[in-house]
Amino acid sequence: xxxxxxxxxxxxxxxxxxxxxxxxxxxxxxxxxxxxxxxxxxxxxxxxxxxxxxxxxxxxxxxxxxxxxxxxxxxxxxxxxxxxxxxxxxxxxxxxxxxxxxxxxxxxxxxxxxxxxxxxxxxxxxxxxxxxxxxxxxxxxxxxxxxxxxxxxxxxxxxxxxxxxxxxxxxxxxxxxxxxxxxxxxxxxxxxxxxxxxxxxxxxxxxxxxxxxxxxxxxxxxxxxxxxxxxxxxxxxxxxxxxxxxxxxxxxxxxxxxxxxxxxxxxxxxxxxxxxxxxxxxxxxxxxxxxxxxxxxxxxxxxxxxxxxxxxxxxxxxxxxxxxxxxxxxxxxxxxxxxxxxxxxxxxxxxxxxxxxxxxxxxxxxxxxxxxxxx
Length: 375
Description:
Oligomer: single chain
Strand content: 25-35%
Order of helices and strands: EHHEEHEHEEHEHEHHEEHHEHEEHE
Number of domains: 2
Radius of gyration: 21 Å
Structural class: alpha+beta
C-alpha cells in the first residue's frame, strides 16, 4: 500500500531530508546536500523563498516506510516574468517502484491544479543557484556538491508517466594546461587595455563581499535574465546564498572584472570540491567536516567551476577568456587533478565554446522535464 502525506511535523521534515541518504547508502557517486541547509527549507524565517513562492513537501510511504519524497514550488517571480502558470518540482527521490513515483508526481500535479497552474516542470530548485536537472547520463561519475545524483530508473519512470524533455544541461571535466597559451595572454591583455578594465582585489572574503556583492549579483541578473528557469535575485536571497557558500569561498576561486569607474562588469567563481567530505559526513556539517572543508580550500585537488556572468554590453568581447585566464593563474598553484564545469544549458553556445579551448570531456547530462496537466 502506498500513501502520500504532506510534510507537516518536525519528524516528517527529518524523514524528508534523510531519505536520500538512506536510498543512496551503497552508491559511491551520490553526494548529499548539507543537511542543515535542507532542513532550513521548511522554515520561512530561514528560507527567504517563502516571500515569492508557494511551497509544498510530500512524502510517500509504502507499507509504512518512507519510499519517496518531492517538493512543489509555485515560483511567482518566474511565472510573472514568463507570463506562465508553472509549478516546479524539486528534491524528487523514490525507490525503484513506478507506482511510488506516480503517486508523488500526482500529488504535485493535483496541488498545481489547486493553485490554478497548468504546467509542471523540473527538477528545478527555487532559483538558478539551487539544484537543477535530473541526471540522465554519467551515472558512474561522482556528483558535485552543487548537484543531485539520481539512479537511471528516475528518468525512465518520469518518461513513462508523461514527462518530456524540455531542456538539458551539460557538464564537463576539464584538464587545465600547464600554462596558458601566449595567444590567450595577448588577447586578454589587449581587451583589458582597450576597455580600461581591471581585476578586483580585496583583503579577504568578507571585504570582497562587502565591496562587490551588489555589483556581482546585478551582473548575474543581467547576464542570466533570458536563460531558462532564471529569476531575479532579491537582496534577501543574495544574503541567503552568501551564507550558504561562505564557508567554502576562497579568493583564489573568485574573479571580478571592474571598469574604469569600479563598476562590476563580469564575474566568475568556483569552489574547491567538497564532494568526498560531505559524502563521509552524510551531509552533516560537524566540526571535523568543517575543518576538512577549510583544509580543502588550502589544498585543492578538484575545482568546481560555478558560473561566469558578463553584462550584456561586454558579452562577445573576450571577457570570458580573461576570467578563465585569471582563474587559472589563481588556482594553478594547487596542482589540480581536474576541474568540473558544473552544468551549462545545452544551447548556451557562448559558455560551451569556452571549454573547447581546453582538454575536456562531457561526462554528465541533466534534464528538466515538462508536463502539461490541463490539456
